[in-house]
Design a protein that fits this description.
Sulfite Oxidase, Chain A, domain 2; 13% strand; transmembrane; binds molybdenum atom; single chain; transmembrane helix; alpha+beta; binds the ligand Nc1nc2c(c(=O)[nH]1)N[C@H]1C(S)=C(S)[C@@H](COP(=O)(O)O)O[C@H]1N2; membrane; 2 domains
């Protein structure tokens, strides 16, 4: 029987399994943190897409040890009779792996599932990481051999110690529960636990606050201007549809993404250019730009990494109107958008650019768009994934032929429609 064969040499197998699992979790943790960390968006560029595939592949691969363990689990479980702490540990690790795997599959196939699935999947994936990673770090650090051994036993020669260590994965901390705090080991574990709580805790609470809370912070327009790195004057005066926001206030939070440092602008160095294959090339300064007629619209915003912000009230100039004013010439095929960060670009076809809801936005929920969200001016393309919504927009050029945008160059699909994909974008 398969099971019987599996169980032969089962002790060694469990040790190996444990080691494999540790490596898988380590790789997933590292790649996952790189993918989530804003810093790496700048530093990695194309490498980020490879890391994403590595993360997905290893993540899918984690199914193997899980299934393998489940085949051996019966025997292991019996062996752990009475060892509540160890049984608890097994259940936690299994639950983490399965939870990460399921939510990860949804995030990987975000287009097939759509935002209604990918939003909760991302929350679950994050939550498991916030709980699971510190748990696993604690688990592995406190199990390092020297922590487990009594001071006098640490003098034992290398050979037997190594042999004893092989039993480590299923030796208990202490029968029946964790060590009391007043022993040396208990104290060190407690210290490590506290250290983790102190380092991870604040970011966790921040994340928790932002997942539960809605919208970006409160405050008045004056406060925003005073605190923002873009000090452009005069501030745009919101239309009635913006104050109060006709969408009722955004639900959810933007994760701030940038591939450069966040650029800062002032009246002196900011301009907006519309050029290329148009009859009236134009350059605006801030004063003339805020003087243009704006509109208000409510829309949802979706990112390919799984998060969405619903009911955004954007106020700005419909791109359609700008293009009409400019007089698009025959031969223009693509609308190319430049970010004032000097690096990021993206495109829409002329036809896509003429959609009613594509907006050159200057206000969000009745306030000037803060610099980290792409202010003073950002593009908003509600029907497409967020990477089309170029932040710090300062130039629109009409070109013949095509151009490949920043993320498209790095593996993202040029087709960014939300909810129209085939699942393999
Ligand atoms: N200039 C610039 N624009 C950008 C990006 C960027 O990194 N740089 N990221 C894009 C992506 S992938 C998304 S999801 C949204 C995120 O907008 P937010 O940072 O306001 O949340 O901006 C898009 N526009
Ligand atoms: Mo995105």
């Amino acid at each position: 029987m398969l099971l019987k064969r599996l169980r032969k040499g089962y002790g060694k197998k469990l040790v190996k399994l444990h080691a494999w699992n540790a490596w898988i979790v380590a790789v997933l943790a590292l790649t996952g943190l790189v993918l989530a960390g804003g810093f790496w968006r700048m530093a990695l560029g194309e490498g980020r897409v490879w890391i994403k595939w590595l993360h997905v592949a290893v993540g899918l691969g984690s199914l193997i040890p899980v299934v393998y363990y489940l085949l051996l689990a019966g025997k292991h479980w019996k062996q752990l009779r009475g060892k509540r702490w160890q049984r608890f540990n097994v259940v936690v690790v299994l639950a983490l792996l399965v939870g990460w795997l399921l939510s990860g599959v949804v995030l990987w196939q975000f287009r097939a599932f759509g935002p209604a699935w990918s939003n909760p999947a991302l929350t679950v994936h994050d939550l498991l990481t916030w709980i699971g990673l510190p748990y696993i770090i604690y688990h592995s650090v406190t199990r390092v051999k020297w922590l487990k051994e009594q001071p006098q036993r640490r003098t034992v020669k290398a050979e037997p110690a190594a042999a004893a260590d092989r039993e480590a994965p299923y030796r208990d901390y202490a029968p029946g529960g964790p060590q009391p705090l007043y022993t040396r080991r208990g104290f060190i574990r407690g210290a490590i636990g506290a250290g983790l709580a102190i380092t991870v805790g604040p970011s966790f609470l921040k994340w928790l606050g932002s997942s539960i809370g809605s919208g970006i912070g409160g405050g008045t327009t004056e406060e925003w201007i005073a605190n923002d790195r873009n000090s452009l004057v005069p501030a745009p005066q919101p239309l009635p549809g913006s104050v109060p926001p006709s969408g009722g206030g955004a639900k959810g939070n933007f994760r701030i993404y940038t591939v450069t440092r966040i650029p800062a602008f002032s009246n002196d160095n900011w301009s907006f250019v519309l050029d290329g294959l148009v009859s009236n090339k134009q350059t605006w300064n801030w004063e003339s730009f805020v003087a243009m007629q704006r509109k208000v619209q409510v829309s949802d915003f979706h990112c390919v990494t799984g998060w969405s912000v619903y009911n955004n009230t954007w106020e700005g100039i419909p791109l359609k109107e700008l293009l009409k004013e400019a007089g698009v010439q025959n031969g223009a095929e693509t609308v190319k958008f430049y970010s004032g960060d000097g690096v990021y670009t993206d495109t829409l076809t002329l036809e896509q650019a003429m959609m009613d809801d594509v907006m050159v936005a200057v206000m969000h929920d009745g306030k000037p768009i803060p610099s980290d969200m792409g202010g003073p001016v950002r593009l908003v393309v509600p029907q497409m994934y967020g990477y089309k919504s170029v932040k710090w927009l300062n130039r629109i050029e009409l070109i013949a032929g095509t151009h490949t945008g920043y993320w498209e160059k790095r593996g993202y699909s040029n087709d960014a429609w939300v909810g129209k994909g085939n699942g393999f974008g």
